[in-house]
Design goal:
Length: 445
């Protein structure tokens, strides 16, 4: 009798485990999309993951699966479109000449004999509170000069932490460089004065006194080529509302479900200098937001015609369902935000086709799954991707799946079968128990 009940217990315990350990299929996901192409066995393919896909995937892509026509998992890996880190080279430039007059100064620089083309000149300037126009030219012999760029350098550190002493230009391979620095010319008496003065800060066009600068050294640097920089996908938001909190700060809540490597604000105000705090939440509840980044945006007039601005919050931030943007206004009027754009490094899925003309389905939307571990990640990854050739394949429109999200749902379909087995075992057990009971009663007689 004990053996029978032990067998019964074992069967009941093992049934859900068998169901739980069953391989997942597309029916276990909320969403799927077909991946159609004339696939060739052994070839590597790239599937871009658009924003509408990322919005429906778990934050770490744990629930993303690729299935073949037989509904079997196909190994894959997701890689950000961020090239491997490439170091820049920096060269000290020798100052070989200097001339100045009442309104300008000219500096001649010479590169080392062995160098790569450079795209940045960094000036080591000891002074503060200055604002200069700078024109950069290049020459192979120090006589014939080719203009490269006109830009500005400035320092407002006595008021705010804002300083720019670097000049960027298209990659140039010259032995000599010439810098011409001039003061910003005051506006004509007939022109209105442009002033930016908030909380004691003065960034007016004529607010910085003319002064000579001491350039201690200059360095030239190579710049990472455009093809080596991250490629971003973007989503713009136009229909959003902003409110003011009790401290007078502008607050904007943005439902996104997207990563945010960059957040760009379209501001219509002519000039400003504000701190911006970016918070994230998975639920949108007031007490659930956590600080993700705190940076400065600004638009400063450098002359009547020229201004310097930065309206970008830049930091690698994983996917959040909600973002809260808080602009610290202090005593200033609120900024007029016309638009917001989120940008994130492109995410691409890579896989190797196992059969010719195979049909694949990309499925996602199952919060209970853990990240899979496939061998493909050992030889196709961020560092080795440039060594492979691959073909780009687009997915079809997303369709709703069965969306069963756990072993409970798998187990539910077998409830009737389990109930029948339990009833049969109980009947057999009761029969054997009655038989043994009657047998013992007969032996006593």
């Amino acid at each position: 009798m004990k053996k029978i009940f032990s067998l019964f217990s074992l069967m009941v315990c093992c049934l859900p485990m068998q169901v739980l350990s069953a391989p997942i299929t597309p029916a276990d996901f909320q969403y799927c999309a077909d991946v159609k192409h004339a696939f060739k066995a052994g070839a590597l393919y790239q599937v871009p993951l658009a924003g509408e896909v990322i919005q429906k995937i778990a934050p770490g892509f744990e629930d993303l699966r690729l299935f073949d026509a037989a509904q079997k998992e196909t190994p894959s890996i997701v890689i950000k479109n961020i090239p491997p880190f490439e170091t820049t080279e920096t060269y000290p430039l020798e100052i070989t000449g200097y001339e100045n007059d009442a309104s300008s100064a000219t500096v001649i620089l010479k590169m080392p004999k062995k160098h790569r083309p450079i795209s940045v000149l960094s000036l080591d300037i000891s002074g503060t509170d200055f604002k200069k126009q700078i024109a950069v030219s290049g020459s192979t012999d120090g006589k014939a000069w080719q203009p490269l760029v006109e830009d500005s350098i400035y320092d407002f550190t006595s008021q705010v932490d804002l300083r720019k002493t670097k000049v960027e230009f298209p990659s140039a391979d010259y032995l000599y460089f010439r810098l011409k620095l001039t003061d910003y010319k005051p506006q004509a008496a007939t022109q209105p004065s442009i002033r930016l003065k908030y909380d004691g800060l003065d960034f007016s066009v004529n607010g910085v006194k003319k002064k000579e600068l001491r350039i201690r050294s200059v360095q030239g640097s190579t710049l990472i080529p455009a093809e080596k920089k991250p490629v971003y996908d973007k989503k713009s938001f136009a229909n959003f509302s902003s409110t003011l909190d009790k401290e007078g700060n502008t607050v904007i809540v943005l439902p996104a479900d997207l990563p945010a490597d960059q957040l760009m604000l379209e501001v219509s105000n002519p000039y400003y200098y504000r701190s911006v705090n970016l918070y994230g939440s998975s639920t949108g509840q007031d007490d659930s937001y956590r600080l993700l980044a705190s940076q400065i945006i600004y638009r400063l007039p450098l002359s009547a015609e020229k201004h310097e601005e930065r309206n970008l919050i830049e930091q690698q931030i994983p996917k959040h369902a909600f973002y809260k943007i808080v602009i610290v206004n202090k005593n200033n009027p609120p900024l007029e935000i016309k638009g917001i754009t989120l940008a994130w490094a492109q995410q691409n899925l890579y896989f190797i086709a196992l059969k010719n003309d195979e049909r694949y389905s990309l499925c996602f939307g199952n919060q209970r799954l853990k990240r899979p571990e496939y061998d493909i990640g050992q030889f196709v990854n961020q560092n080795t991707l440039s060594q492979h050739t691959y073909e780009r394949v687009e997915i079809s429109s997303i369709r709703a799946g069965a969306g069963r999200l756990g072993w409970e749902d798998r187990f539910a379909g077998m409830e009737k079968l389990i109930l029948k087995i339990v009833v049969v075992i109980l009947v057999i057990g009761m029969g054997i128990w009655l038989f043994m009971l009657l047998k013992k009663a007969g032996e006593k007689k």
